[in-house]
Give the backbone structure.
Amino acid sequence: MATVVTDPNAAPAVHYLNWRKTVASWLFSLDHKRIAILYLISISVFFFVGGLLAAAFRLELLTPEGDLMQADTYNRYFTLHGVVMIFFFLIPSIPAVLGNFLIPLMIGAKDVAFPKLNLASWYVYMIGGTLGVLVLVTGGVDTGWTFYSPLSTTYANTNVFLAAMAAFVTGFSSILTGLNFLVTIHTMRAPGLTWFRLPLFIWAHYATSIIQVLATPVVAIAIFLIAIERVWGVGVFDPALGGDPILFQHLFWFYSHPAVYIMILPGMGVISEVIACNARNRIFGYPFIAFSSVAIAIVGFLVWGHHMFVSGQAMYSSLVFSVLTMLVAVPSAIKIFNWVGTLYRGNIVWTAPMLYAMGFLGLFAIGGGTGLFLGVTGTDIHLHDTYFVVAHFHYVMVGGAVMAYLAGLHFWWPKITGRLYNHLLGKLSAIIVFIGFNATFFPQFLLGMQGMPRRYHSYREEWQLLNIFSTSGAMILGIGFLLPVLYFTWSLVFGRRAGANPWGAKGLEWEKASSPPSPHNFDHDPVVTEEAYAYTGREQLSV
Amino acid sequence: MSSTSHAEHAYVAHHFHSAEQQKEAGTLGMWLFLAQEVMFFGGLFCVYAVYRLLNPDAWLAGSASLSVFVGGVNTTVLLCSSFTMALGVYFAQTGDNRRLFQALVATLALGLLFIAIKLQFEYLPKYREGVFPGANWGPYGHHYGHLADVANQGGLQMYFVLYYIMTGMHALHMIIGFGIMVVLMVLARKNTFGPQRYMAVENFGLYWHFVDIVWVFLFPMFYLVR
Ligand SMILES: [Cu+2]
């Protein structure tokens, strides 16, 4: 057989995107890469639905009076914004898109352990999503994404049952994805790929999956009971009928606090990869970053009561939950310390993903730090249910999780599509998102400290100036989010060929797989002989 | 590791290197699924614990109205089905597909018997005599008349809400199991299983035993409160 010398930068003739072309070959594909693309498209749609809802109620908040919408409409908009963004965008975002695409590639496997289950979880997600859309078109739901009883069980006149079912069903998609990843990481690693050679992206997803498998069923049952209560008209959680509303809050937050880590941990995995590559440096403190992911997953299970300091929880419980909340900040701080340590004496390249990652570092640090204000019982009583809380969790969820998702998307886009996007526009969008984000949410910290309560469509006049800042920021943020849609789409057709490894990055997905990867990922089963992030600081970038 | 023998190719999925790896993945996957199930029922057990502490009297009254005899018979039926399932796993491992098929038939029959008893002697009579939470709530008749005294205290409805939800969830898990058993029966008919290939049966066995164990907890929690 004659040896054919191929240009490593040329796209392979046959890859996972083009080897089969029918619609059915996508909708019934068992290939983890194609399933990742299915998720990418579906969660993007939900992201823009959730974003439009936010844009609408931010416009309403331009003025103190309710003029664009009345309380009822406003309640529905912010509820749907929360439900859509959390259950249909943030929870699946990095794991289902980047995790699905990258985990098998990073560990040198042909696919995840259970490809059929993987496809099934996308369908489960789509069924949940369809229910969610049904809620949207049948008048929405106005309980807030938290479904607190007795509002949700007795007083709400909206489609609580359907919304509860949508969240319930979608939860199982998340459980099955987590289960699949845990088994994949345990059993499918390439020869030589020991636990401490794994990319930190894998460790982060491992910790995330533990939470998905162990926490999601609890919220599923809590939401299921709310639905039962609506249908049967019995009192499971309604105090008027002998139920205990605090019990619902316990069950809800037992999941929904760890769910914060389902959203942020995979982002931390992305940041480790992006920073190591763009600082051309070995990751500083590998075992600390790896184990802090697991520590976050474990301690994260024990802090849920900090959402209930003013709900009538016993004072001593609050005390314990407060101390544990301080504790869970430690592993996050360890990560930030080690990322900064990785930057130190690195040869930093300012690529678009790196700008997003730097944005993440700053915003997540603010988001995490302000979380401590809310974890202290004394300050929480003042700040509870004010815009301070809204600002805090948006710094974590948008400044952290969404920034990391975008960093990851920009980093692996050449691998996923085989094309390069316009790099200047990429950097521009990172900067616009960063500015827009801070303009939107920093004023909300100030509003919260002045006592502006969340979830109202009207407010006192002295708060208008900061609200105008916030709404203007939201518009800038919106532009920042739209920009990538344009240049990513453009790149699909006109983008330069990326070549297998445009960043000169380490890792099996860059070094052993083509861009886009072949249908079965690798031409030869890879064998790993070195640790992760073996950067020497002198690699050349071809972008 | 990748030296797959020819016979193995028939059932090792393309993305696995060996039968060993496939087996390991299947087992771990099943245990994780069961962990998820434990958390799911765990949430319900937690709700049960809270409301039982809040309503001790209602729990006594509710429990007294259930038949320990019927519950006891059903517990026996279910434990027998676990035994036949365990036999089935053994026959799958030894490649005795004929006996495996019989064991699955026995397990399915016992499972159906459990559901039949539950419907005929528990769910339906209770529903007819007003022991069903919600709009039609109002226990009457010679079985449940004595409940009328405590019926309006709320706690009793809570007891039956949990009774129906938890035993109902358990029954739902059994019915899902019936479907899987039918698939396994078809495969056993085709002589699919043997010493190299029995994981599907073994993993289903784990599921079935788990469902039984849930009942072993539910039985004392609802029938034996004294
Ligand atoms: Cu929390």
About this structure: Chain A touches chain B at residues 109-115, 175, 179-180, 182-184, 186-188, 191, 213-218, 220-222, 225, 228, 232-236, 241-244, 247, 251, 254, 520, 525 (CB under 8 Å). The mean pLDDT of chain A is 93.
